[in-house]
Design goal:
The chain is α+β, with helices and mostly antiparallel strands and 311 residues long. The chain contains six helices and 14 strands.
C-alpha cells in the first residue's frame, strides 16, 4: 500500500473567549505519596524512571529529588478520576476491551469520489463556517476542535527555542481551566501525534508530548464513550466520517495515564540514559545500606566491648 502524500502541518487557533493561558488559582500544599515509575515529572518535564512522588489530591507528579523545588500549589478539585469522568464514563473490562478494539480497527480508505461526496455532505451540514476543502491531489483539509481536559499542570516557556524543559526562570507552570477549546486547521494526512506536538508547540508547552494523549468522545445509544486514539489515527478522517456535530464526536486532550511504560516510544539514547540513572540510583542505595550496617556493626562492637571482660 502506497504511503499517503505529506500534507501541510497543523495550523492552530484558539476559540474566542477561551484563554488557554489563564492560570487557575493555587490552593493548599501537596500531599505527596510514593508513586510507581512510568510518568512524567510536572516540574522538570523529564521521565520518572524510579523514585516518583504523586500528590494524593491533585495528582501532581514529580521526581523525589524535585519535591523541594515544587512551588505550584495543589488544585484539590483536579483529581484524576474527577477529570476523567467529568463529561463521560469510563467502563469496566468489557467496555475497555471494546474501546481497545475501536482503536485498532483498520482504516477504511475512501476513494476520491467517496471523499468528495462526504465532504459535500459535511459542508452542507456545517453551521460554524468551518468547512472542509478537497485538493486536487486527494488530500483534504479542515478544522477540528480539541478540548483541553488536563488534571495536572503544564509548563510554558516564556520564549521559544529552548527545547525540552529542565525548569528554569523562563518557565511558568500552571493548571489549565477545563473550558479551554482550541480550533485546529489540519489536513487528512496529519496524525494524532502530529496534532498533539503542534498543539504543544503553538503554546510553547515544554512538557514532553508523550505525556499527553488524544481521546475521542462518542455519543451512542444515550451513552458517552471515551476512547484513546492511537498515534497513527487521522483525526480529520474521523471528523469527516462522524460529521460536523460535536455532540456526536469530539476530541479531548488529556494526560496519558495508562499505568504502563511505553518503552517503545523512547529512542535508544533515552533508554541507555534510563539505564545509567538506574545504575546510579542503585549504587547510591547500596552505599546508604552499607553505611547503615557499618554503623550498626560499630555500635554492636562498642556494646560488646563494654560488657565483655576476659576472665
Amino acid at each position: 500500500m502506497a504511503a499517503a502524500p505529506q500534507g501541510p502541518g497543523p495550523d492552530l487557533g484558539s476559540d474566542p473567549g477561551s484563554s488557554c493561558c489563564r492560570p487557575a488559582p493555587p490552593s493548599a500544599p501537596h500531599r505527596f505519596v510514593p508513586a510507581a515509575a512510568g510518568a512524567w515529572c510536572d516540574l522538570c518535564c523529564r521521565f520518572v524512571v524510579s523514585q516518583g512522588l504523586r500528590c494524593a489530591d491533585c495528582k501532581y507528579t514529580c521526581h523525589a529529588h524535585c519535591r523541594d523545588l515544587v512551588h505550584l500549589g495543589c488544585r484539590r478539585n483536579g483529581k484524576l478520576m474527577d477529570c476523567l469522568t467529568a463529561h463521560g464514563t469510563l467502563h469496566g473490562s468489557d467496555s475497555d476491551g471494546q474501546d481497545v478494539q475501536k482503536e485498532t480497527e483498520p482504516h477504511v480508505y475512501l476513494s476520491k469520489e467517496e471523499v468528495k461526496e462526504k465532504i459535500q455532505s459535511y459542508n452542507s451540514s456545517v453551521t460554524d463556517k468551518l468547512k472542509m476543502t478537497l485538493n486536487s491531489n486527494g488530500i483534504y483539509t479542515g478544522f477540528i476542535k480539541v478540548q483541553m481536559e488536563l488534571c495536572r499542570p503544564i509548563t510554558v516557556q516564556s520564549s521559544p527555542g529552548q527545547g525540552t524543559c529542565a525548569h528554569s526562570n523562563n518557565e511558568t507552570a500552571f493548571y489549565l481551566p477545563n473550558d479551554c477549546v482550541n480550533t485546529l486547521h489540519i489536513s487528512s494526512t496529519n496524525t494524532v501525534r502530529e496534532v498533539i506536538e503542534a498543539l504543544l508547540k503553538k503554546f510553547l508547552v515544554a512538557d514532553n508530548p508523550a505525556k499527553f494523549a488524544l481521546y475521542k468522545r462518542c455519543h451512542k445509544e444515550d451513552q458517552v464513550y471515551i476512547c484513546k486514539l492511537s498515534d497513527r489515527e487521522h483525526p480529520l478522517y474521523l471528523r469527516l466520517v462522524a460529521g460536523p456535530r460535536t455532540d456526536m464526536l469530539s476530541f479531548v486532550l488529556r494526560e496519558h495515564e495508562t499505568g504502563e511504560v511505553m518503552w517503545e516510544a523512547f529512542s535508544l539514547p533515552e533508554l541507555q540514559n534510563f539505564l545509567r540513572i538506574l545504575d546510579k540510583e542503585e549504587n547510591e542505595q547500596l552505599q546508604i545500606l552499607k553505611k547503615r550496617y557499618a554503623a550498626y556493626r560499630d555500635k554492636l562492637e562498642e556494646a560488646l566491648g563494654g560488657v565483655w571482660k576476659p576472665g
